[in-house]
Recover the amino acids of this structure.
């Protein structure tokens, strides 16, 4: 399970009905997994934050935040993911305490 959600390679997770689309640095995978199990797998990791009903992002791969959008960058591909209104406060609180390794 840990390899599936490795913080060093997973860019984001998209929730699609009963499936998860896991986008990694070099590939992506679609698996069937209950949301409850996903929550359990990620609950101890400050690296992953849910920013809307459909997306959980890896904070390590944030390239830019512009208004209500988060940009995740992977090589030359850029992914724009909107921050949901319900998740706005939670995202910015997580952003304040997240250690980007800049110190």
């Amino acid at each position: 399970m840990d390899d599936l959600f490795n913080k060093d390679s997973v860019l984001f997770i998209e929730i699609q009905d009963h499936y998860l689309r896991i986008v990694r640095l070099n590939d992506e995978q679609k698996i069937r997994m209950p949301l409850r199990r996903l929550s359990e797998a990620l609950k101890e990791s400050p690296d992953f934050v849910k920013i809307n009903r459909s997306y959980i992002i890896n904070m390590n791969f944030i390239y830019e935040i512009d208004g209500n959008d988060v940009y995740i960058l992977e090589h030359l591909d850029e992914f724009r993911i909107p921050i949901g209104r319900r998740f706005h406060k939670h995202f910015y609180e997580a952003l304040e305490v997240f250690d980007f390794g800049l110190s």
The chain has one domain: 10-97.
